[in-house]
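Title: Comparing notes on inverse folding

I've been comparing how different people in this forum approach sequence design from structure. To keep things fair, I'm posting one structure and asking everyone to reply with a full sequence. Here's the target:
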């Protein structure tokens, strides 16, 4: 694995077997900077159905973890490129330049907040998908190979994904160790969930360790009876994975227009409270669970 110093960008290759799973401290041979070395926990926020809160959850989970002092890389694998918009930043490069090796990892990422970096998505990812499609061999490992040099620089890598099912979605499933599924509390979304789980099991044949880690109910509206029934169903089917729901909160839909996370835009809102609880749950659970 390649280890890159976060201060001066000096890289060196270290045998994977020599990298401890627990945190160790590395001395940069070039500038002497000391930095912790451990592989980031990688959490992919995924569901083929559109508009279920994937981007809202990715951005606010990443921002909430960063506020807790974790070093976080948010990766946008969607051509819509909304993560940058939600954070109110305009990076000139992102995931495309990393995958095509036009830029070094340290130049492809963009510092969006304290402790929070973004590997931006956007239209150019369409070319990346074509590139993956054209590979005769190993196309599904493209993202894994590209993110490897960044893994030791962060505590968390949070991956936002696009609706639908495309070569990048498959890459995300071959990369992430933990999967978080936002389920909007409406009947249609349960149908979407069962279809997604079928597709996931086709990946599981090749990568046994991939599985659902967190199921996050979104758009919970306590005034309506139906969402409560769906939530109960989910609790029965996925008792270990179900998280506390994210309530419907208009502040969450307003914040992106100001380029702010929910913690910046409305820190006392139900949306901020619910995402804080999700951050806590993620921090308290082990990546091996
Ligand atoms: N809990 C919530 N309460 C109110 N509005 C929300 C909530 N979560 C998300 N939204 C709003 O719903 C819309 C869809 O959310 P979001 O973009 O996060 O979904 P998505 O799954 O990423 O969509 P896509 O599949 O298109 O990528 C956005 O306008 C967002 O601001
Ligand atoms: Mg999205």
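Reply #1:
Here's my take.
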């Amino acid at each position: 694995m390649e280890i890159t110093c976060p201060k001066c960008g000096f890289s060196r290759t270290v045998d994977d077997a020599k990298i401890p799973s627990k945190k160790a401290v590395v001395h940069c041979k070039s500038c002497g900077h000391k930095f912790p070395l451990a592989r980031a926990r990688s959490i992919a926020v995924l569901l083929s159905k559109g508009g279920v809160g994937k981007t809202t959850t990715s951005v606010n989970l990443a921002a909430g973890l960063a506020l807790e002092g974790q070093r976080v890389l948010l990766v946008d694998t969607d051509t819509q490129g909304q993560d940058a918009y939600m954070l109110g930043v305009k990076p000139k490069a992102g995931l495309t330049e990393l995958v095509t090796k036009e830029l070094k990892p340290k130049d492809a990422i963009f510092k969006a907040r304290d402790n929070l970096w973004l590997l931006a998505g956007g239209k150019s990812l369409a070319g990346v998908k074509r590139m993956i499609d054209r590979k005769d061999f190993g196309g599904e490992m493209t993202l894994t190979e590209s993110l490897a040099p960044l893994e030791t620089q962060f505590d968390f890598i949070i991956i936002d994904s696009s609706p639908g099912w495309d070569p990048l979605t498959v890459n995300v499933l071959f990369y992430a160790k933990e999967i978080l599924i936002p389920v909007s509390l409406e009947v249609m979304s349960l149908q979407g969930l069962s279809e997604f789980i079928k597709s996931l099991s086709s990946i599981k044949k090749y990568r046994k360790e991939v599985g659902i880690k967190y199921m996050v109910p979104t758009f919970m509206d306590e005034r309506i009876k139906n969402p409560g029934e769906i939530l109960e169903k989910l609790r029965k089917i996925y008792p270990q994975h179900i998280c506390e729901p994210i309530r419907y909160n208009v502040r969450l839909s307003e914040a992106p227009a100001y380029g702010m996370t929910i913690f910046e835009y409305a820190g006392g809102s139900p949306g901020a409270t619910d995402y804080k609880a999700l951050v806590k749950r993620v921090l308290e659970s082990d990546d091996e669970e």
